[in-house]
Amino acid sequence: MAFNIFSLNIWNLNRDFCDRMRRLGGYLSHARPDIVCLQEVSPVTSTGRPQSDLLCTQLPDMTCLYSSQYQWGDREEGLATLSRLPLLSFESFMLPPAEGDGLRRLQIAALDYHGQRMLVANTHLAFRHEQNSERCAQCRAIIGHLTTAAEYWQTDAILLVGDFNATPMSPPIASITDNTLGLRDLFSGTDLRRNRNTFPDTSPYFAGDASSVRWIDFIFATGRFEVQFLGLALDGKNGDFVSDHVALEARLELLA
């Protein structure tokens, strides 16, 4: 059996967030991914609950795991991993800091996939263009934490997703793919990568310039996963942008 994974920077509580969350929840209820990884998740002021918890009210069969990253002005931002697969364990780690940026974090969920163990990691790295060295340090820390988790769970089935604020040919991304874990960039070489961006100026929520339009969101996977489908979702084709990013989707089979 195959499973679906979805990843999106949801743009926290910015403009029209109630309507955006309603449309995001409607999409997830219809698409029914088995794993959802979200970045820029914030608590909703009126409830004190993170946006991911509110999404889970529309997805009652999913376990929701939220981790606060930092306080951005008067707003908290964090990560959320939602899963329909049985949860074996969950850990959250702080990553090396970057000057002028909030603290960044890595989530690692160990999941049971029909009796096989797999790791799903979710992150959001330093955002300034010039901070490649800081992002490289964060990526090295991520690889270290994943290596430890893989050894503990005795598995080489590893997924790493999120907003890396780095382009495909940049040093931080190379530090992810050039390591002993065997992680590969699933969208590398695809038509989607050649013709599209995950931070596009076509979104009505885009706030940037020409240099900001980039592919900066990723799904990495080890060779234990066979790709059945890759796609971009909530990308405006049906007027359905819900963020300044578009979502990544993959349908994968975990090989025995």
Report on this structure.
This protein is of the alpha+beta class and 256 residues long. It has one domain: Deoxyribonuclease I, Chain A (4-Layer Sandwich). The protein contains five helices and twelve strands. It has helices spanning 17-31, 51-56, 132-153, 171-177, 191-195, and strands at 2-9, 35-41, 63-72, 75-83, 87-94, 105-113, 116-124, 158-163, 184-185, 217-221, 225-233, 247-254. Strands 3-4-2-1-12-11 form a six-stranded mixed beta sheet. The chain has a six-stranded mixed beta sheet with strand order 5-6-7-8-10-9, with helices on one face. A hairpin with a 2-residue loop joins strand 3 (63-72) and strand 4. The longest helix has 22 residues, at 132-153. The model has no long low-confidence stretch (mean pLDDT 95).
Question: Outline of this structure?
Answer:
The protein has 256 residues and is α+β, with helices and mostly antiparallel strands. The chain has a single domain (2-254), classed as Endonuclease/exonuclease/phosphatase (Deoxyribonuclease I, Chain A, 4-Layer Sandwich), CATH 3.60.10.
Number of helices: 5
- Main sheet? 6 strands, mixed
Specify the CATH architecture: 4-Layer Sandwich
Shape: globular
Care to count the β-strands? Answer: 12
What is the string of helix and strand elements?
Answer: EHEHEEEEEHEHEHEEE
CATH superfamily name?
Answer: Endonuclease/exonuclease/phosphatase
What's the domain count? 1
Category from helices, strands and their pairing:
alpha+beta
Summarize the amount of helix as a percent range. 10-25%
Distance between the termini: 11 Å
Strand content: 35-45%
Mean pLDDT: 95
Q: What strand line-up does the widest sheet have?
A: 3-4-2-1-12-11
| CA-atom Rg in angstroms | 17 Å
